[in-house]
Write a structure and sequence with these properties.
Elements (H helix, E strand, L loop, with lengths): L1 H10 L7 H22 L1 H10 L20 H6 L1 H4 L10 E4 L9 E4 L1 H16 L8 E6 L13 E6 L4 H11 L3 E4 L1 H10 L2 H7 L3 E4 L6 H11 L3 E7 L3 E6 L5 E3 L4 E6 L12 E7 L10 E7 L1 E2 L11 E2 L10 E3 L3 E3 L1 H13 L8 E10 L2 E8 L5 H15 L4 E6 L14 E3 L3
Parallel strand pairs: 3-4, 3-5, 5-6, 6-7, 17-20, 18-19
Antiparallel strand pairs: 1-2, 7-8, 8-9, 10-11, 11-12, 13-14, 15-16, 17-18
The structure holds zinc ion (ZN).
Length: about 425
């Protein structure tokens, strides 16, 4: 319990601190993480020795560029040697990253990491008005029990496969203050709810996550739900990367991650210049992640936010936009439904299992698509059959889904950063 209280105060209100404080805290956490990784992770020790970098040479964020970057491939291949010797993976929480974020990775969270993730989610919601005793509803493919909420944070998770009628009934009864939701799901649900329903539910804010969103889509969601919509940017690997304040500034959670933006030559991009997002996780001790190329594109702004937060501002995030499928008769199948068909059955194999290590779904015509996959170490043919049945239900009987096993998905990809792609819309 003491750990929880200490952790709570470690993260509490850091988003309200001046930038000098935030920078100092981030550098301190970075030094601790580099020492820890060098001392206890075989992979990082080798990496640093090969690069000729001693841990003491990295004392601030600007020194980080002396370290090599790490790709998803590096993590897949070196999983065991990345894990810190100080942690027993059996006693950690194991998760698998979703296919929407690229190659599928197994990720390990120690207790402190799990706790900090929750606290930082609460903080992201607090920044848009979530206070103790207010009610939050979140939508996910699989709902996870937060484990604890300090008894204050009332919340309810709903899975995406519930019929909209049931979701509507629930929202009318529970009357949440805040929804945490995928943009495409929010848009589809909005079309089902009447104006009267929306008024009765009485939302105060919406937090949009996971998919890239254009600002006019966000305005439409705000109009339909009659409340402001904010964005949150997070990943399984590192937790919350950035969250919006009420001024709609996307603040990097500097006490959780270092965000670097690199240009195509691997050099730091200038303020406002777009480039590849590279993350260093500051609270992930069982599985250190240093200069990890997550595969998204964004920018760091040099500007300050009217809210006064000292946490730096991130630009628009590109790279997670998935397509909807357009079928005969102009029927539109949104990305979240496609994820349901592909990813939900994966959860049935447990978090320790890596059934697939990569996939790519591409629509070739109104009546056909190709599903490419790379087997994971726990591959199961039953998964492929299950996914085929679900896809048939989703796309209808006239639709052909061709399944192909590959060693390397990148060879067939038309659009590098997309995992669900449509060639026809
Ligand atoms: Zn702000």
């Amino acid at each position: 319990m003491i750990d929880r209280i200490n952790a709570y105060f470690h993260f509490h209100n850091n988003h309200l601190r001046p930038s000098a404080y935030v920078k100092e805290l981030q550098d301190r956490k970075l030094r601790k993480m580099i020492e820890h990784a060098y001392g206890t992770s075989g992979f990082y020790r080798d990496l640093m020795e090969r690069a000729g970098v001693r841990p003491g040479e990295i004392s601030t964020v600007s020194d980080l560029r002396r370290m090599p970057t790490v790709t998803k491939d590096d993590i897949q291949v070196n999983f065991n040697s990345i894990i810190s010797r100080k942690y027993d993976p059996e006693k950690c929480i194991v998760r698998t990253t979703s296919g929407s974020s690229g190659k599928m990775l197994r990720v390990i969270w120690d207790d402190f990491n799990f706790l900090s993730r929750l606290l930082l989610y609460y903080r992201a919601f607090a920044m848009i008005g979530y206070t103790p005793f207010k009610k939050l509803v979140y939508f996910l493919p699989v709902v996870e029990d937060a484990g604890f909420t300090f008894g204050l944070f009332r919340q309810k998770g709903l899975t995406l496969d519930r019929p909209f009628e049931e979701v509507r009934e629930f929202l009318l009864k529970y009357r949440p203050h805040i929804l945490s939701i995928y943009p495409s799901y929010a848009a589809d649900l909005a079309a089902f709810l009447s104006d009267d329903d929306v008024k009765k539910i009485g939302l105060q804010a919406i937090s949009l996550n996971s998919e890239m969103i254009l600002s006019n889509d966000r305005s439409l969601i705000e109009e339909k739900y009659r409340c402001p919509a904010y964005e949150e940017y997070s990943c399984v690997e590192a937790g919350v990367i950035a969250g919006m304040c009420r001024c709609k500034g996307m603040h990097v959670f500097s006490d959780n991650v270092v965000v670097e933006i690199l240009d195509s030559a691997g050099n730091p991009a200038g303020p406002g210049e777009r480039g590849e997002v590279v993350l260093t996780a500051l609270n992930s001790f069982a599985m250190p992640l240093i200069r990890y190329r997550i595969g998204d594109i964004s920018s760091l702004s040099g500007e300050t936010c009217p809210c006064g937060s000292g946490m730096p501002l991130l630009g628009r995030i590109e790279g997670r936009k998935d397509d909807f499928f357009l079928l005969e008769g102009d029927r539109r199948v949104p990305a979240w439904m496609i994820y349901e068909a592909i990813e939900r059955p994966l959860h049935g194999y447990g978090d320790e299992s890596l059934v697939l290590s990569d996939f790519y779904l591409v629509q070739r015509g109104r009546d056909r698509a190709d599903f490419y996959f790379v087997k994971g170490p726990n591959f199961s043919r039953d998964y492929v059959n299950d996914m085929m049945v679900r896809s048939r239900d989703l796309f209808g009987p006239g639709f052909t889904l061709k399944v192909t096993e590959l060693d390397d998905i990148d060879r067939v990809k038309a659009v590098k950063r997309k995992y669900i792609h449509s060639e026809i819309n």
